[in-house]
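Archive transcription. Copying these from loose printouts into the bound notebook so they stop getting lost. Printout 1 of 2:
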Amino acid sequence: MFFLIDKENCYFCGGFSDNKNRMTNKQRYEIFCDQHPEIPLFMQAWWLDVVCLPEGKEWDVLFVEENGNIIAVMPYHFLKKWGFTVVRQPMKTQYTGLWINYPLELKLHKRYSFEKRVMDNLIDQLEALNLSHYTQNFHYSFTNWQPFYWRGFQQTTRYTYILKNIADLDAVFENFSYAKQKHIKKENDDLQLDSTLSADEFYNFHKECLKQKNAEIEYSQKLFTSIYDKVVERKQGIIFALRDKNKNIHSTLFFVWDSNSAYAMTSAINPCFKSGGASTKMFWEAIKFVSKKTKIFDFEGSMIEGVAQSFQQFGAEQMPYFAISKSYSRTFDLMKKLRR
């Protein structure tokens, strides 16, 4: 089995047939993802199909190969904006960026040279796309962005918060702050867990909560429904809600997971009940639910001070991740500034 690659397509040969089947990069990447389920959820081909295509946008992937083996991939989301070609993060997607398939037993000094070789290759391919602007968030497991710096890229450090080893729920709870533990222990028979909320109900509740705070929702109902339908189909996502005896919703949480980590995608709190601790109870119910399905709970972080402090009180570990960018067009930069 082998691949021949040209600039836009690859050709798959081999197997049990002598016939050659033309494959796109995306089709090839789908096969690669099936072979590597350890690739984080937001970089999986099926996820990119969901978050990019419903909005009339596109995605593709770059490969690095050595000795006939794929050693690195970089899926990316692109769109045309004001006549410019731009790579940026898809909506409702924490990260994309680079994933490296490291050789076994690689010494540290060889790891650095290996990473530089991989990144130089990918940057060469990236810059051959004739982009006007590039920006991607990289998974927190990616820690060496220096080769990008040497090639003129910029980096902003952001933070997420994670709970490791959530299978040990007693240890997880013990690390909660006293205030969080108190909210969870507080007896409140009025609040009942509901896992039957539809995508439309969740979206409308979130939209209404934001409206009461004079804020607008940033993602479309069509996009959310597409994500929800797909993760439910794959049994990798669910919506939780807490209701009182009058069926009022106090808080909701949409979360997804793979075999390595769960992600708190979107939460919403009814402003009328924000002091009742429903949000804390909601997250605790979610952590308990996924503790038998995966290893890590990722709160998905926030650069908002109050939100970050709340996640810290869950005993979550702060994890930095990189937003890496480069602009290739002064005109595009100017138009962005004018639009702001």
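Printout 2 of 2:
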Amino acid sequence: MHSVTFKERLEHAKFRLQTQYDKLEQTYSRIQQRDKDLFQRCVGAQLSNDPAHARIYANECAEIRKIAKVVLGSQLALERVILRLETVSEFGTIYAEIAPVMNIVKDTRSKIAGVVPQVANELDEVNSLLEDLTVETGEVSASTIATEVSDSEAKKILDETGLIADERLREHFPDLPAIAEHPPAPKLEPANNIGNNGDLQDEVYKYAKEHPSFSIASCADELGKSPHEIRTAIDRLRDNGKLMIE
């Protein structure tokens, strides 16, 4: 009867882990949708020449993607744990098989605590259940479990899930657009543009003093400006009383 009871409790642990896996999957889907919305706003702000808001949206996307990595990595870790428990359930209780599982659950619990506290609390209970099962088999004492928290196999599995999470994140989330750290400097008009009317007026005024009788075409040709620029400069000189037009 003991083996049946053990197997039933192990199945219960698997069920509870699968439930938390499903919760994380739902959380990850919400994160993806939130990132998609913010990404579209970021692109929209850039198209509207609004780098300040584009930067705000991009920064928020970056923060959301950090959370996404934690959630996805936790999902993958729990998937490994569930598979391991299926193996233990099929071939019998082996402490060497369950020890890495407990360490993975502990590590996953600590990572997800600040993101999905409900899942973290449930993982605490599942880990306690696994510890109780291991002690009941008589293979290891509770004190041994308490001290053996660093496990090379568990670390290897967590490192692998971290790499897989990075790959999937690159697949699921588009690269954020590059945004300038500072707003672009205002575009300066070329030197020969009418915007530099102060300098041009001085040039026209000097030219008029040297050539009491001149045509707009000859002045434009001499100064390398367009007739329109010369005419505008003359009008402003006349309005300012610096030039008399007969």
